[in-house]
Design goal:
Bound molecules: zinc ion
Distance between the termini: 61 Å
Order of helices and strands: EEEEEEHHHHHEEH
Helix content: 25-40%
Number of strands: 8
């Protein structure tokens, strides 16, 4: 059974990755998606793939590429997608996004990483589009924005906020997490001393 991975291009277009080659959509019909090698134009490459219309099954693969594929380039495409996704959906520092995304990357891929200046610019650009508020530097900020008070599935996440001030207490949890807590037999508690316990 041939396997492939779906990803996205930098412009957020669907990208299909298979055997070290990357494909973009050529055309879509009622029952099939036709993919062409990413280098179809540049190298006049004839590599093509067909999937069913919901892109779950690979129906046909013509891998007569006129260039080499590389597993590392697939890995890097997936890394780039991960970086864009975190930058859009998290509010971490640029370097944190990179560090988290580099975990589990193979040595070969690390050796061939794209220029970090470029990666950092991508993160900042995406961050500019994500509309998330700036990270506050103390506890006196006004209100937690609606966007951060619910989960991505729009269920309650913010449980309690004692309000602006240095003694502020905020409790965040999804319903599932509360249930886990309730059903747990042992509770392990962790304190972050920088913000927490003074005595
Ligand atoms: Zn090709």
């Amino acid at each position: 059974m041939p396997t492939f991975t779906l990803s996205t291009t930098q412009k957020n277009k669907p990208l299909l990755l298979s055997k070290g080659f990357s494909y973009t959509i050529d055309k879509i019909t009622n029952d099939k998606t036709y993919w062409k090698c990413e280098d179809a134009r540049k190298l006049k490459c004839k590599g093509r793939v067909h999937t069913n219309n919901i892109n779950t099954i690979l129906l046909h693969e013509n891998d007569s590429h006129n260039h080499n594929g590389s597993a590392v380039s697939t890995e890097i495409r997936l890394l780039e997608e991960k970086v864009r996704d975190r930058a859009m959906n998290c509010n971490e520092a640029t370097q944190t996004v990179i560090d988290i995304c580099l975990v589990n990357l193979s040595d070969n891929a690390i050796a061939r990483l794209p220029n970090f200046k470029h990666v950092k610019r991508t993160i900042r650009n995406r961050r500019g589009q994500n509309g998330l508020p700036k990270i506050p530097h103390d506890k006196t900020f006004d209100q937690i924005p609606d966007q951060l008070s619910t989960t991505k599935r729009i269920t309650v996440f913010l449980r309690y906020d004692s309000g602006s001030g240095n003694d502020r207490i905020i409790i965040l949890s999804s319903t599932e997490q509360l249930q886990l807590l309730e059903n747990g037999e042992e509770l392990l508690v962790n304190g972050t001393f920088k913000v927490g316990i003074v005595n």
